[in-house]
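Worked example

This section walks through a single chain of length 256. The input is the sequence exactly as stored; nothing has been trimmed or padded.
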Amino acid sequence: MTVKAPNFSLEGKVVLVTGAARGIGRACALACAAAGADMIVGVRNVEAAADLVAELETTGRRVFAVTMDISDSRQISEAVAQSIQAFGKIDILVNNVGVAPGNLAELVEEKDVDQILNVNIKGTFLVTQAVARHMIEKKSGRIINISSQAGTVTLRGEAIYCMSKAAINHLTRCLAAEWAQHGITVNTVSPTFIWTDSTRPVLADQDFYDRTVGHIPLGRIGDTDDVVGAVVFLASPAAALVTGANLLVDGGWSVA
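Given that input, the structure is written out below as tokens.
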């Protein structure tokens, strides 16, 4: 019996990453390019993403930046159409955009509920739907939703955010079941707290940092490298039989 090494290459694939300008989205874009994929980066401001495009181009891959505010359905449709026109296809979608204005449940304002649900659930679904229509036509595709451990565990002051991520986790399962017949896999990656520009100010609070690390059996805050490994795996041929899964990258928080 010949044993072959798993294939984690994305050579010849086209990947769309939403919210690619910074943090986990940026890291996902760079990792997918390093794995061989041509990249479409969905950002709110194309001009401001020039440094990301330049960095991606150093990998030798083709890169296309497209304006995509996922709270705007018209902009989603136009961005997906422009992306397909630019590269002829989208093989892999990484849904990374998410917002999390936190507050104790009794103090949450309606505008914050609307923002979280419109972006985290509605926007994610509409991007997925637009790309999946193309994937259904070509009978193949990979969809990876960046969720959060918040969809599995409880976080004080984040009730609406937790609700939105739990919804994404279940939407993933529903779409995985519905679109398997079209050769499309749908999976979720759910990180714990990750060091990014947006989390550093919060984690700079020593008391908050200590309490957070105390929940993580592996004893550390995650890095973007911890997340992108899971994303590249799910995007790659090595994960061909994986669909409807929620891959928790949480250092054991959810099982402690």
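What to look for: The first helix runs from residue 23 to 34.
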